Amino acid sequence: MNCYIHVPFCRSKCGYCAFYSEANAENGVVERYLDKLEKDVKESQILYPQTIYIGGGTPTLLSVAQLKRLFGIISGCWRPNADCEISIECNPETLTPEKAELLRSFVTRISLGIQSFDPALRKTLGRNCSQSAIIEAVKLIQTQKFDHFNCDLIYGIPGQTLEMWRSDIGQAVKCGIDHISCYSLTPEEQSVLGGTFLIDDDSAVSMYEAAQQELEKHSINRYEISNYAAAGAECRHNVNVWRGGKLAAFGPSGAGFDGVTRSINSDNIRNWLDGELSEKDTLIPEARCREIFAVNLRTVSGWNRSLWQQNAVSWDEMREIFRTAMESIPERFYIINEDSVRLTPDGLLYWNDIAERVIL
Ligand code: SF4
């Protein structure tokens, strides 16, 4: 089982973000959140999680005492074994030496939300974080020597040139990362920036291509549309989820999958605290298989026969469904063999269109 814990608190809301979080949560709400989380984790009947991902929101907005309690809840109920990947998302402005040391004692992977090293671009994004906070956070992470260090960057920001993007990537590499997530700016409708500017597709494609060119010089390679890693530094939690692995989700707005049914927790912390039940969505087996198949096509390696273990639809049937879906798609966008199926680098750019053809 892969476990996701959503920590729904942020210092302020970034302009592009549609993840559920509360800025300036009222007094006592974090403690009530931890009380409810403890109850849910205790009732989960999970013993040996394969991976644990603590995301948000901003998990590191919690105080040292609150983080200690969060880690105590996890280790008191679950028995992550030595090779369990434990990730946490962190925003630079919330990291202190004490928190960094505490995180290092519990997690194997830290993910730093930088978005851009350029202050003007961060301002455009509505990302409230100073340059000195980034420098200090990177130093703390380097000092603690986490097993794995990811940073998130955004490209396609209005005013961002290709050279500025290459510079952002270069600075990230210098921080000592072994994983990087590069997201194209696509503000969700509900976000502050949603609908406020037109995305320049051509420059976004140039930046997508530049990311791979710059990163491969440092042996950090794309393994999913938006994710790049040094060998062995791929995020196992995400890889498992893309392949349709079981996911238990905790916290408001957390989305899970038990192998048959998808569930999503209330994205209102008051309702979640009051015990509102999660929404369930059970797909027919073929639809579920198609969806899982489409999601993992985002990866560079795609699918192969031995990976495909979804019993409802056999590998040969699923491969045929894919072949039919791709009939009017240029052959340079995909590679299909007897035992494997994947999109080419050009095909990954059209993943949305291709996924629509695969999903029922
Ligand atoms: S991007 Fe991260 S820090 Fe910004 S509002 Fe969203 S969850 Fe919070």
Features:
single chain, TIM Barrel, Arc Repressor Mutant, subunit A, 2 domains, nine-stranded mixed beta sheet, three-stranded antiparallel beta sheet, globular, binds iron/sulfur cluster
Structure description:
There is one protein chain. With 360 residues, the protein is α/β, with parallel strands linked by helices. It folds into two domains: 2-240, TIM Barrel (Alpha-Beta Barrel), CATH 3.20.20; 284-360, Arc Repressor Mutant, subunit A. The protein has helices at 29-43, 64-77, 97-106, 119-125, 131-144, 162-174, 201-216, 236-242, 269-273, 285-296, 315-325, 345-348, 351-358; strands spanning 2-7, 9-10, 22-23, 51-56, 85-90, 109-115, 148-155, 179-184, 221-224, 227-229, 247-250, 255-257, 261-264, 279-282, 303-304, 334-336, 340-343. Strands 9-10-8-7-6-5-4-1-11 form a nine-stranded mixed β-sheet, sandwiched between helices. Strands 12-13-14 form a three-stranded antiparallel β-sheet, with no helix packed on it. It has a three-stranded antiparallel β-sheet with strand order 15-17-16. Strand 12 and strand 13 (261-264) form a beta hairpin. The longest helix is centred in the middle third of the chain and has 16 residues, at 201-216. The radius of gyration is 20 Å and the shape is globular. The relative contact order is 0.11. The model has no long low-confidence stretch (mean pLDDT 94).
